[in-house]
Every structure is written in structure tokens, then in C-alpha cells.
Design brief:
The protein has 253 residues and is mainly alpha-helical. The chain contains 13 helices and no strands.
Length: 253
């Protein structure tokens, strides 16, 4: 019986476009459900970029014909195939260590809060609220007209929590993080004054992203750590351990 394929092998096959059918759908579902798996996929993708940049792929390929020559030689009487394969494995492992070392260095020197924001930000998908009165800016938000959302929001004398939330997302879509922060904090303050919890968890996540896009990693970290620690938080899957590690590297000590 063949040994089960590891997640890392499947991720590499996924990146190389080698998976099909049920196996492809299965790994896609696992990536979506597991933030640590998503982070590993991002790391492998970055590692492959490092390979292309530094020519490590050629180094690995260069070992292969040498191994085949050795294998042919070792299959002669008195040869040791096991020893040869072990030595070959060590050489490949050494190259891979170099590969992931370069990948880690690349992440360390090129990572920014804004890049972490871009990796995680997706526009909030507004769902139909049956039985609720329709907010005038809902339609323009659903149409993706973020400039119109902002214009409509600026004309509202007394914004509701939904107004603040939709405006916050529109500002993020328009890469105006400071305005997004102001709107989302206003939403939290309004909830607190009315003893309500409207858009509470959504606001936490998007406020953290707004801080990232505004270059305020230290303000984003405690919010994202809270989300990561709560398996019941709707955005828990978006905040993996590797993502938090990359974020912590950006905060001066």
C-alpha cells in the first residue's frame, strides 16, 4: 500500500497544476478551511519564486543525473544502493534548506503591513436582510460603486452602524485606511452607547486590516491575536499562526 501523501506534497502538486478532479477539490477545500495550510501554501509559492530568482531549481536538477549515474554504478556487484540514496537525499535536503532559508529572508526583508493587508483583504459580501428596511447605500455597495458609497455616507447626518460599516469597507476598497479606521471605530462607539453588537465581529477583522493598510501593525496585532485565539470567531480561519508570525516581525521591540 502506498503511504498517504503529505499536505506539503499535495500543496506542491497543487502549485504545479498536477491535481485534478476530487483530489483538486479536496485540497482547495482544505486550504479554505485551514489558515495554517493557506499560510504554508503562500510560503511554498514564495519559496518557488526564490528558486526561480536564485537558480536553485537548476542546482536540484543537476543532482539528478549524477544520482542516476551513481545508481547505475552501485547496482554492480558490491555496490550499495541504500547508501547512495541516503547520500543523495542529504544533498537534496541541503539544497532545500538553502531554499527555505532564502524564502524566509525574502519574507523578512520584503514584508510590510500593507502587503499583509493585500494578502487578506476581500470586500465584505453584503447579504440580504429579509424583513429589514433597505438602507439606501446598500444597492450602490452591492454594485461595487465604492465612490458612490462614500459620497452617500458623507451626506448622512446621523449614520447607523450599517452606514459606518459599509463606509469603512468602501474606504478600504478605495485604499483610504485612515478614513476606514475612523468609520469602524465610530461603529464600535455607537454599539457601545446603544448596548448593541451589530457587525461586531466583522468590524474587528476589518478594523485590523485597516490598521495594517495604514502601516499600524502594532494596533492590528492584538485584534488579530484575539481572532486567532477564538475558534468560533467567523474570521478565525483567516488568521493563521504563520500570518501572525510575519506580522510580529514587523513590530519594533
Amino acid at each position: 500500500m502506498n503511504e498517504p501523501t503529505s499536505n506539503t506534497e499535495l500543496l506542491i502538486q497543487y502549485l504545479d497544476g498536477e491535481l485534478e478532479g476530487e483530489e483538486l477539490q479536496s485540497i482547495k477545500n482544505n486550504i479554505e478551511a485551514n489558515p495554517d495550510l493557506l499560510d504554508e501554501l503562500e510560503n511554498l509559492r514564495l519559496a518557488r519564486e526564490a528558486v526561480n530568482s536564485y537558480g536553485l531549481r537548476e542546482k536540484i536538477r543537476a543532482i539528478h543525473p549524477e544520482m542516476m549515474r551513481d545508481l547505475k554504478e552501485k547496482t554492480k556487484p558490491g555496490g550499495s544502493v541504500t547508501k547512495m540514496i541516503f547520500q543523495y537525499g542529504l544533498r537534496v535536503a541541503a539544497v532545500l534548506i538553502i531554499l527555505f532559508g532564502i524564502s524566509a529572508m525574502y519574507q523578512y526583508f520584503t514584508g510590510t503591513p500593507e502587503k499583509l493587508f493585500s494578502a487578506k483583504f476581500q470586500s465584505f459580501e453584503l447579504r440580504e436582510l429579509r424583513g429589514e428596511p433597505v438602507n439606501p447605500i446598500e444597492d450602490v455597495y452591492k454594485a461595487g460603486k465604492m465612490g458612490d458609497v462614500i459620497s452617500a455616507f458623507n451626506k448622512i447626518n446621523k449614520p447607523s452602524q450599517e452606514d459606518y460599516f459599509l463606509a469603512g469597507n468602501a474606504f478600504l476598497n478605495s485604499r483610504q485606511p485612515k478614513n476606514a479606521i475612523d468609520a469602524l471605530i465610530k461603529l464600535q462607539e455607537t454599539n457601545k452607547s446603544l448596548n448593541q453588537h451589530l457587525f461586531e465581529e466583522d468590524t474587528e477583522y476589518y478594523l485590523a486590516l485597516a490598521y495594517l493598510d495604514n502601516g499600524q501593525a502594532a494596533q492590528a496585532l492584538p485584534i488579530l491575536e484575539k481572532i486567532h485565539a477564538d475558534p468560533n470567531h467567523p474570521y478565525n480561519r483567516q488568521v493563521g499562526s504563520w500570518f501572525l508570525l510575519k506580522l510580529k516581525r514587523l513590530i519594533p521591540h
